[in-house]
Amino acid sequence: MDFIKEKLDFYLLDTQIENMFINEYMPFADGNYVKVYLFALMYADNSSALTNDTIAKHLKMEIEDVLKAWSYWEKQGVIKKNYKSKDNPFDYVVEFISLKQLFVKSVNKGISSQPSVKKKSTASVFETAMENENIKKMFDEVPGIIGRPFEGNEMFEIIDWIDHYKMDPQLITQAYTYAVNKKNNNSFKYIASIVRNWFDNKVKTIDDLENYFEKTDKRYTMYKRVLKSLGLNFRYPTEEEKRLMDTWFDEYHFDMETILKACKKTASISNPNISYINTILKNWHKKENSPTKDSSAFKDKSEKVKSTKEIFDAYKIIRKKNENIHDKRRFEIYKKIPRIKLIDEQISQLSISISKSVLMSTQNSKDEVYQLKKKISQLYQEKAFLLTENNYPADYLEMIYECKVCNDTGLLDNGNHCECFVKKLQSQS
Questions:
Q1: Within a 10 A sphere around the Cβ of 399, how many other Cβ atoms?
Q2: At what angle do helices 188-200 and 206-216 cross, to 10 degrees?
Q3: Three-point CA angle 296, 301, 307, nearest 5°
Q4: In DSSP terms, which residues pair with 80 in a beta bridge?
Q5: Global pTM?
């Protein structure tokens, strides 16, 4: 008598996934990397042939993302690349490592398990990255651009972009700015798609981005060329600035050469802006005069430029004076009430702890962040109490501004002059 067993369809079989992978490795990995790992593991369990191209097509991913996934998992120690040829770095067999066996070996050797090393390395990667001033500046600027705090593992993903894509942190800031200003979208997934697209198009620096836009977006390149002529290389135009520039091109029918001539007239202004250029071009359009033939029409304007420069120079003096006052106040308070210095240091440390907690995204992260924010709020209350108890105003250590609308710059966020600037200009006429 013979015995046989019915063969099941390939896709009805089960794939064994180790709990150590799910618990210790998966939470820190990019979602696409996890998909690549699981999909290939299914084929490995059944000894079926599979190529990276097949994985990319099936998962609707780029082949580069599949290759990056294997490089990532190799670094984590959960797979091993067995190369078929020394001459071809992409021709290899992926061997899935048994995490249980890896754990047992590490224990027998008296070493902590690989997963604990992983957790430690995640925190150390973040701390090392924050020592880089450019990365730190990027993390300071981005929340203000997108109008929301970082979500979940977003900060760690950004560090991963810089590492894997070899991108300039300033370029990451530009990706967020581009998404918000041009596409009106601040979601992390959308911004990630922009970064990935730029990487696919070999965009790694600001100069690369300029060349990329020149090829793909003619009008946007025109915007950037105008901003660049004003020394505003590293930001994108606001909606109001785009509206004004569209008027120059579409309604006034000025060519780029004429517009750039108008931009040159801001050479003596400390803070050149689009609104000022718009005034010049609007005047040229009304008079129907070419700027090359104009010899006297802008005599009054020259006087105004001189006055404008004097006003902006005055703003610089105001800001410097108030910065000095603020520094003296802080030194005074720290000396008289040492507890406030400790409070400021604690607030700074707690803010970093919040970033780390969000980054690690553990099961208790929400509670940890809540408790940390609660502690910061209590410290601010204590700080205000100590100031008032010592006969100081509660806002004594806040930055000082004569105009809190423009923060003593004379300019609003949309590039227009602040009301305080207009009053100063009128007082000189």
A1: 13
A2: 90
A3: 140
A4: 95
A5: 0.34
